[in-house]
Design goal:
The complex is a heterodimer. By secondary structure, chain A is mainly α. Chain A has five helices and no strands. Chain B is built from six helices and seven strands. A seven-stranded parallel beta sheet of chain B has the order 3-2-1-4-5-6-7, with helices on both faces. Classes of the chains: A mainly alpha, B alpha/beta.
Chain lengths: 88, 228
């Protein structure tokens, strides 16, 4: 089943909340890590959670241009779709 | 004191079957931690700590059999002394491999569990030779000094996550390694005696306690003022 934007955004909000990011519930696709006060270690935790939840692998190179919630959503959806397109 | 309520996990002591490691494992057990020892050929689980794959397999085993690792004591060590001018590359690499690579690989794996729990204690058993050079121990001293830098870096990286990383630098401690040379070694110790493994274990116990939550990136000397 295809992963929806809403699903990914909700997962990101939940994880940011677990990481104790202030105002995690109000995170929007346009929210940047700087605005949310998400540091590099927080990002590592978020990535691990997204990998586990959506059964994807995010490489360090993919992470470099990720600066906002929307960037993370787009990357997650792209990788999840690519995974679904791969024969088992 | 075991991990705070809701943080179920174990204390893993590398090189915990003898000497200082055994005293630490015993003490943490008395403090209420479920304690697991890791050794090359002995202990509850076996691994070559210097080998990343071996460490990963051991941590998977610990997690499966006992639970997540919330306290890690990097104590596994090896000494192969010799004057620098006579030291072989193999002698150098082997000691760095066990002492320094080992601390890194185990820390790397334990952090996964600690980060999830938002609680963790890492204690690196360094040595007085990290601060006060000893002829014949360039490999051991470099590895142990490297552990102090590893300690401080991990402390800074993890400070916001409820995880502390500290080091203990034992001086001359009564173990199998110092048996027979105790008198000679004792001569340079201001305290006038050599230390006991349980005195090192006591320092580790403090660093693993809830009361030490704000002690992070520190080096605690247990050396009878040898490095002072």
């Amino acid at each position: 089943m295809a992963v929806t934007e809403k699903e990914v955004l909700e997962e990101i909000r939940e994880q940011l909340e677990a990481i104790k990011v202030p105002n995690a519930r109000e995170a929007q696709p346009e929210s940047t890590w700087t605005e949310l006060d998400v540091d590099s270690l927080d990002l590592v935790e978020l990535v691990k959670a997204l990998e586990d939840r959506f059964e994807i692998t995010i490489n360090d190179d993919d992470l470099k241009p990720i600066e906002s919630v929307g960037d993370a959503m787009a990357l997650t959806m792209r990788l999840a779709e690519a995974k679904e397109g791969t024969p088992a | 004191m075991p991990p705070p309520e809701g943080h179920d996990g174990v204390a893993l002591v590398t090189g915990g079957s003898r000497g200082i490691g055994r005293a630490i494992a015993q003490r943490l057990g008395e403090d209420g931690f479920d304690t697991v020892t890791l050794g090359r050929t002995s202990g509850d689980v076996q691994a070559d700590v210097g080998d990343a794959t071996s460490v990963q397999a051991a941590f998977d085993q610990v997690r499966e059999r006992y639970g997540p690792v919330l306290v890690l004591v990097n104590n596994a060590g090896e000494r192969r002394d010799g004057l620098t001018i006579r030291m072989s590359a193999e002698q150098w690499e082997s000691v760095i491999h066990t002492n320094l690579d080992g601390a890194f690989h185990c820390t790397r794996r334990a952090l996964d569990d600690m980060l999830k729990a938002r609680w963790g204690r890492i204690v690196n058993i360094s040595s007085v030779v990290a601060q006060r050079a000893n002829p014949g121990q360039c490999n051991y001293g470099a590895a142990k000094a490297g552990m102090l830098s590893l300690t401080r870096t991990v402390a800074r990286e993890m400070a916001r996550k409820g995880i502390t990383c500290n080091a203990v630098t034992p001086g001359v401690i009564e173990t199998d390694m110092t048996a027979g040379v105790a008198d000679q070694l004792m001569a340079g110790v201001p305290a006038g005696r050599i230390g006991r493994p349980d005195e090192v274990a006591h320092a580790v116990s403090f660093l693993c306690s809830e009361g030490a939550a704000y002690v992070n990136g520190a080096t605690l000397a247990v050396d009878g003022a040898l490095a002072a």
